[in-house]
Automatic annotation (TrEMBL):
It holds the Pfam family SPRY. PROSITE patterns: B302_SPRY (PS50188). Residues 1-184 form the B30.2/SPRY domain. This is SPRY domain-containing protein 7. It comes from Gouania willdenowi (Blunt-snouted clingfish).
Length: 196
């Protein structure tokens, strides 16, 4: 019994060489290593301004992801999902197979094709919260917590949340502590090691 106690102490860090420091889980935020050259990221990786696009630092590996954007200042903007192959200096996104985005005019584009459109009376304005769900097949949009019934699909491969701005637009990203409760079955983005 004493031998077992000694082994436990040495393995648990009581002076033993088997101590392993626990790493803090990373925070999902905008990735300054994957952004356009004229993009400015502030507020601890949560606010985007300038001109261009930025990916989040976590891919959407889980089955059902949810994230939000708050429009702080209007202008030209877009939000959605994209692969790492997307050109982050070319706005608007949605021109090729590497992005699927809602644009500020209410259109949803992928591969230079309009996939859907928000109702005319539901265009996001300054102060609005746009929620996005993605389940590896379909992207859905929510305006201030209300489902817009505006599904879009078509993008393939590993995707990341993406946001672009131009013409004085400022958007804040919310990857946790949401303004609105995610739809049933959807949750915040998890890093791969958090899933297993």
């Amino acid at each position: 019994m004493a031998g077992m106690f000694t082994c436990c102490l040495s393995c648990c860090g009581e002076g033993g060489s088997g101590h392993i420091a626990l790493k803090e889980m990373p925070t999902v935020q905008l990735d300054t290593h994957h952004m356009g050259t004229d993009v400015v990221i502030v507020k601890t990786g949560r606010r985007i301004c300038g001109t261009g696009a930025c990916l989040a630092n976590a891919p959407l590996h889980q089955n059902k992801s949810y994230f939000e954007f708050k429009i702080q200042s209007t202008g030209v903007w877009g939000i959605g999902v994209a692969t790492q192959k997307v050109n982050l200096n070319q706005v608007p996104l949605g021109r090729d197979t590497n992005s699927l985005v809602l644009r500020n005019d209410g259109s949803v584009y992928h591969n230079n094709e309009e996939k859907n459109r928000l109702p005319a009376n539901s265009l996001p304005q300054e102060g609005d919260i746009v929620g996005i769900t993605y389940d590896h097949v379909e992207l859905n949009l929510y305006l201030n917590g209300k489902n817009m019934h505006c599904p879009a699909s078509g993008i393939r491969g590993t995707v990341y949340p993406v946001v672009y701005v131009d013409d004085s637009a400022i958007l804040d990203c919310q990857f946790s502590d949401f303004y609105h409760t995610p739809p049933q079955g959807f949750e915040k983005i998890l890093f791969e090691q958090q899933i297993f």
